[in-house]
Design brief:
- 2 copies of one chain form a homodimer.
- By secondary structure, chain A is α/β, with parallel strands linked by helices.
- Chain A is built from 14 helices and 13 strands.
- Chain A folds into 2 domains: 205 residues, Rossmann fold (3-Layer(aba) Sandwich), CATH 3.40.50.450; 145 residues, Rossmann fold, CATH 3.40.50.460.
- In chain A, the strands form 4 sheets. Chain A has a 5-stranded mixed beta sheet, sandwiched between helices. Chain A has a 4-stranded parallel beta sheet with strand order 7-8-6-9, with helices on both faces. A two-stranded antiparallel ribbon of chain A has the order 10-11.
- In chain A, helix 1 crosses helix 12.
């Protein structure tokens, strides 16, 4: 029998370091050619397995694979596709097994967030039931930093660094113009239901008066009066007010702020996000001139300002996933474990997929100041190490040079998949 | 008589390298202590002169001054304040002269765009008429790159680099998810009436299919049908479409696109900018899932990804301004002159303020492709050298360390200014 092959897929929203995990997987597998045959990557994630679109990564040069370490987004393509439960869609699991069997795939490494860890856990169980046991390992990834057990999630540190750097820079811009111009600046950041990214922007405020002055977390119900009072007090005190708002910020009823507005004259849902909503509220109620920014994908793709710590951890979990698989572990995920000493240290640990799947980790209340508008020193102690170090990509003609893969597909052996 | 003092002020919208010009001014003045006494910087620009709020830069350590070279925004404060004509507001000019005379200021260096060059030119003429001749030198600055005569404007190269890097990164993000998720991404950029910044984003497209696929310039009237056809063709061809739109994009009647929409249910002018406007149009007409970003101040404050060429040129024009003043030149501005050879070279030249003031330089038509949606090779040849090189600031705790000045004000000698 030939050596078993490995299938790797990227899942869900991409990050600026998920390819560093891919790099860790592929380079480690290549160092173990005696045990692992080919490394296949799913074209556009798990959908690539269903469609039998298997990218043969052996066709990529080692230089290309190394450059994945400094390339943002999902080099093999990702997708938002959650396998249904076995009872709901048995055919899908059967197809997965057929593809794995047809290509002698015995290792399945799935790089994603909570949903994905649920999927890979299911596949692990079912592969046993179906008589074709697959070694299933999860690889953590999410900018939202909301996975449990692991100290932090690869992908988060870099977006955290981006938002902290950005609000520091934009804050200086506003500060220098506020006497005669813009007094309020609102920056919207990602994070879904968790305030980790918004909180990380708070790292920019090192001294009293530094931006950001106010952070709006999903974890703290929005109180308009209290918020407006705080904005006015900042403008009076510092001459301006720099605000970071999480896309997941909610009112007391649990509705997103940006959705609580109305429709425009065409009947469209409000065009803007929560940043223009907040900026406009301030203009209406306090009359301050404002500007706002929505970084959107710019923040999670910003490999040019990635955290070195994050890149190293992303690579390490990819590497560890292969090592776990070779050790015969199954249905587990490598995690980041923080050392107990004051100086930041980390090592790779291990969590059961069953414990990780479908659990969201929010900002603890003691990471948020009493008034709900900033982060505490405890939060800073947690967050600061995660944005340490710069890991600049290579530039040519003034622009970062990111990996351009060949993405050669393996020859198909099965009939076409009809979902 | 004591040595003459120098007054330096920052004007208008700030950039990520205007402080590099300030650094060039102050360091060069300090090297000429035999001729120049104190360097005063206007607190919040020219308004600082009217209010007699003169920052004594001699009180700043040479280390602080050096760190200005890598600090974004206006370290002394800037303002949007245009002096009226002499006939309209004689008192203002009289006050300026009074302050200059009271503090023995014989050099006035004004760091700004077209409006500011007009102001400094007027001051030069009037100071002669008023019997207190001031040596007046303009220092070019604008992210919009719309000053005439100079090959390019300090401030532009860095925002150009930021938008090119950002659309490359966000483009990869969209590309990796487009099979099952977002198909259209719209990034709004600055530039007012000129498409230079939008055009610079085009540098990210090095190979066929690279983002951005479409650029909307202020110089090309928006044609909705043609645009939507192009969007659909990109999605069909590449799987997604990355669009860069200038805030100054206009329809055939010369109205800004973002203003041509309607008001929302509260009667507010539309909250979003032109990016959400375009994104929503695409959703309505073509049904594609979209995301959009508005970088706003993030782009012009992004010192973390400044162009090395831009930083060097910004410093050089500051330095040259002092040298011009010491050579007895007046009512001129140092400019960037591009060498004729294929390899990019530049040197400092000189322009009369009268020729620079109040003239806007747009993108030439032959810098824009025939279909109006991208830049030509000629544009790339012009733009590429301007984003060359990286000039990273120093980091501490994962965050760039920018100058923190003491900003000690000189003791006032005059009565309070009443505008």
């Amino acid at each position: 029998m030939s050596k078993a092959n490995l299938f790797y897929a990227q899942s869900g929203g991409v990050t600026s370091v998920i390819n560093a995990s891919a790099c860790g997987v592929i380079e480690t597998a290549r160092q173990n050619r005696d045990k692992i045959g080919k490394v296949y990557a799913g074209l556009n994630g798990i959908v690539g397995a269903l469609n039998e679109d298997l990218i043969d990564t052996n066709k990529e040069s080692s230089r290309s694979i190394t450059s994945l370490r400094s390339t943002p987004a999902g080099a093999f393509g990702s997708c938002r596709y959650k396998l249904k439960s076995f009872s709901e869609n048995q055919r899908e699991y059967q197809r997965l097994m057929d593809v794995f069997r047809a290509h002698n795939i015995r290792y399945f490494l799935y790089n994603g967030g909570g949903d994905s860890q649920d999927t890979v856990n299911k596949v692990s169980q079912l592969s046993l039931d179906m008589g074709f046991p697959i070694t299933c390992i999860g690889i953590p990834k999410t900018v939202d930093n909301d996975l449990p057990i692991t100290d932090n999630c690869p992908g988060f540190g870099s977006v955290a660094k981006y938002v902290a750097v950005s609000i520091r820079e934009a804050g200086l811009d506003v500060a220098s113009m506020c006497e005669s111009s813009t007094k309020v600046f609102v920056m919207e950041v990602m994070g879904r239901h968790a305030g980790w990214i918004a909180g990380a922007a708070g790292l920019a405020s090192e001294q009293a008066g530094d931006a950001p002055h106010i952070i709006l977390f999903p974890e703290v119900p929005f109180n308009q009066n209290k918020f407006l009072r705080k904005v006015r007090s900042c403008v009076n005190k510092y001459g301006y007010c720099a605000i970071v708002v999480s896309e997941g910020a909610q009112n007391r009823d649990g509705n997103f702020l940006a959705e609580s507005g109305s429709k425009d004259a065409f009947g469209h849902a409000q065009l803007g996000g929560v940043a223009p909503f907040i900026a406009n509220m301030i203009k209406d109620e306090l009359g301050y001139k404002y500007h706002w920014a929505v970084a959107d994908y710019l923040q999670r793709a910003a490999r040019h300002i990635a955290s070195k710590t994050d890149v190293e951890q992303a690579y390490a979990v990819g590497k560890a996933a292969v090592e776990f698989a070779l050790k015969g572990k199954n249905a587990v995920m490598p995690i980041i474990v923080r050392g107990k000493s004051k100086r930041y240290t980390w090592k790779i640990g291990e969590a059961k997929l069953a414990d990780v799947a479908n659990v969201e980790k929010m900002m603890p209340r003691d990471y948020i100041t009493h008034d709900g508008f900033h982060i505490t020193d405890k939060a800073k102690d947690y967050l600061t190490p995660l944005i340490q170090g710069e890991d600049y990509p290579a530039y040519k003609n003034g622009i970062p040079q990111y990996a351009r893969l060949k993405k050669v597909l393996e020859k198909k052996k099965l009939s076409k998949w009809k979902p």
